Amino acid sequence: MLWLNHSMTNKRTIILGGGVTGLATGWKLAESGWNVEVLEKRDHVGGTAASFTHSGTSGDYKVDLGPHKIYTQLSGILEEIKALLGDELQALPKKSRIRILGKYFNYPFKPVALLTSVPPLQAMGFGLSYAKAATFRTFGHPEDYSYEKYLTNRFGKQIYEAVFKGYAEKVWGVDPNGLDAELARIRVSIPSLSELVKRMFLGEKNKKEITAHAFYYPKKGCIRLSEKMAERILQNKGSVHLKAWPTELKLEGRRVTEVTYEKNGLRKSTSPDFVVSSIHLGQVVKLLRPVPPENVLQAAARLRYRGLIVLYLVVNKPRLFEDNWIFYPEKEVVFNRLSEQKGFSSEMGPADKTVLMVEITCSPSTEVGGGSLEMVQKEKGDWAWNATDSELFERAVADLEKVGILKKEDVAEYFAVRLRNKYPVYDIGFDKNLNEVAAYLESLENFLTIGRQGLFNYNNMDHCMDMGFLAAKHVVEEKTRQDWQETKKKFQTYQIVD
Length: 498
Known about the structure:
By secondary structure, this protein is α/β, with parallel strands linked by helices. The chain is built from 17 helices and 20 strands. Helix 4 packs across helix 5 and helix 5 packs antiparallel against helix 6. The longest helix is centred in the first third of the chain and has 20 residues.
């Protein structure tokens, strides 16, 4: 990315959030000569794309906050990552499976493998269901208004129910017919069954990959990407404040004139020329003084997230499987995805043991702030969020035995980490609420909100970096608010590629 020329300036940018998006923004701004301060409430950078050291009965070892990969189809991003990480970055072949109807299939699944592994009548049902959907798409007027409709129209009802429906219900916790079709476009990279078949027989030449055949990963954990970006900020005379909580954004007219935060029990204030936020939209609107109008507060509160519990099992075996990920759409299995830390780097754990990451998506208890936001109904969260680690383990290990992954006696120890705002829920109507909040925040002259949390955008690390680079470019080049609307259109084209 050669568009930022270093030139000293006295201008100051405050960045809220030290995740991948905030750090990418700060890195490029600092290189351009801006005075950058990053405020991160956690004791580490990287947000949920981070790693940590666990001290257990088997010794100390590093694990990620759930599995992450570095893969991109965006121009220039991989080159930036390689320049940052150098020899720390390793290339890995990708292998994934999915369990459907009690059997394991390579993922993305091959239609022939699926049809030849089920009883003939069921295979015929899959075929007829797809033929009906294909005919309707050709001669009818199918509506793609929901996640369910979008995928049913492209795969047929029976394949949709076997492959996609259960996974969506587990991850987002709602009837998939109540989820917006935008989620299907972003999350399911396979465009249709017919396209999948074409690629099987004709190849993928000159076409974007619909699965990552290989990916990259830092040897010492995904946090190294964020740590390297933080180092670049510091090298360019910027600051990264950990355990720093923003408490107030003071407005004068349509500008943020003062940012107040707490660190080490002390209250500090600074006057920015620009503020870039990558934190939760619900948090941002509560920081503004004067407070935004009631409709904005309510719209922000209606944007829902699903939480994630990562249950870590230390297992007395070198490895459990060769896959990087295994997906479980089946309702009778409590977890939706499994992975091993050693499936990403062999340097992050004991040689004779492996750490299995068991992902359980759930609805966390709702934390409601004061004032008018108390009108939003509080929720206690579902059973998984409130369960003890022991209760989670007993439920999960029974299912792990059932699907043939391990036996209970193989587990040396276990522990869980709970992540609150992990997955934005694209329920039908979410865009109305999002647009209402975004319109208000984008009316501020020296403020941008970006990233997974700041734009309610379901994306990956490469997308977050791209957002950060484009936000920095916008600030440095003093572009208009209309320019930003054009820039945001690119964010809507991002797609998750497994």
